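REQUEST ID: PR-0412
SUBMITTED BY: lab tech R.K.
PRIORITY: routine
TASK: structure prediction, single protein chain
INPUT:
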Amino acid sequence: MNTLKAGDKVPNFTVNDQDGNPIALSDYKGKKLVVFFYPKANTPTCTVEACNLGENYKALQDAGYEILGVSADSEKRQSNFKKKFDFPYPLLADTEKEVINAFGVWGPKKFMGREFDGIHRITFIVNEDGVVERVIDKVKAKIHTEQILSE
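STATUS: complete
OUTPUT:
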């Protein structure tokens, strides 16, 4: 797994959000961006993490951050997830794994004794110039906003 590190330039991407709207990295030029990757919409830990960011959206915006959630789920599944929990930020339906591979978060995982390939729960803080400032690879879903805001 070749994950982006602090100092790496994020490759540009364009992927549809939950409503089929194209979202590109270039849309966020000049803004600080939190890109959080999660394995699957509507699963327990992913829901806790996404809700924590949603509940603290104003604090994140006050600190200058925009947010993008990314998984390999379909637009329909992402749309249902967003509507169910009323997330104020877009969820990318990265079914072709364009963004997932660009950030290097797809790789071998272990769960309940079995190994498989999947999306790792990692968050990237990207600066105004599209460069990774910080990587949070030990995401704590319940306090994820605190992890982002405590530099």
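NOTES: The CA atoms of residues 144 and 150 lie 10 Å apart.
REVIEWED BY: pending
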